[in-house]
Write a structure and sequence with these properties.
alpha+beta; 10 helices; disordered C terminus; nucleotide-binding; 412 residues; cytoplasm; 24 strands; disordered N terminus; binds guanosine-5'-diphosphate; GTP-binding; seven-stranded mixed β-sheet; 27% helix; translation elongation factor activity
Amino acid sequence: MRTHQHRSPVTALTTVRNLGILAHVDAGKTTVTERILYTTGTTHKRGEVHDGTTITDFDSQERDRGITIFAAAVSCAWDGHRINLIDTPGHVDFADEVERALRVLDGAIAVFDAVAGVEPQSESVWHQADRHSVPRIAFVNKLDRAGADLDSAVASIRDRLHTVPLVVQLPIGAEDAFRGVVDLVRMRALVWADGADAYEEGEVPERLCEEAARRRRLLEEAVAELHPAALEEFCVRSELSEETLTGALRDLTRTGEGVVVLCGSAYRNRGVEPLLEAVVAYLPSPLDVPPVRGVLDGAVQERAADPQEPFAALAFKVNATATGRLTYLRVYSGTIRKGETVLDATTRRGERVGRILRVQADRHVDVDAAVAGDIVAVIGPKAVRPGATLCAPGAPLVLEPPTVADPVVSVA
Ligand code: GDP
């Protein structure tokens, strides 16, 4: 029996991650995105930034293909999860677009350069993400570069971003000899052989045992200081089990009290698989974030991420493509089916949704319906503008931008 056919859409929502990648220009956002698409099997060839074959960046090849050049969100599958990667423009000129992207994503990877550490742009986008209470994990990239230094990058995360870095990996080998990491949560070595895309897991090398134990201890102490249940276990056993540590790291990520730090070299495709594992383990699903708020007849309403609620979605990007005028939606509540007419609460116009598309790196996949929590593109709406709310005609409301005071994350 194939169980996924029997799973309710609400249960399936726990396997969705609406994810953004935030970075200073040149830190490696494009390369990380590219490797995620490659690692998840969305693309079958590794694109290289310098040879013009990357899938998510703007270039003439993509203009010819006419799809991903404009993709505001790309879906990929990983370990039973659907990851919707939402594009967050790195350039300050697109501040409105960044704001809208931050509104629709539930979590983000912040990418830093292991030589430069935290740079001004990453600092400003980090604080923007703070205002939207977007849970984040950090990826210190380019560990293969001469001068790469994880510890000083971590120090700059602590000092410039005013957060508590929770470093969960110890690099194995440095600069050109960077080969893998010790996973400090599971105390296992993950090593990439030359040219390999997948890591091989093994014992922590003897010469690193002491240092790995020391760093695991630092991680446990940092976590216990912030997390009451972890503190209790730490006091009783003077160490943390893998289970407690993982649970505490997830909670601290979601409250924003700490940031899990991973490292690697996206260019060499070392570290991307553990990064995806961390996305699934620590970042929230649409069900883990509080109900979105909207205004209906002057009164504030809440809409839960439930397919049975009245339909409400935010249009966060509109693109003219060869396939048609694509309106990208984050569905917050309810269900939308192909052929239905919805209300644009901003223009008060009815808009018919002719097609619903899931955008993958190299193709559009037609689907019949989209439910709360999902990110899709629709074709049909003619006058919807970015920032507009689309809703069920019988239950109109305008989705409110979250305010700083909103408790955006709840921890079970
Ligand atoms: P973006 O501007 O943040 O999208 O950064 P890119 O992904 O375009 O990368 C900027 C430059 O850094 C490119 O020349 C990449 O090839 C290079 N780069 C990206 N990741 C790595 C890495 O892990 N190691 C090294 N040495 N270079 C990298």
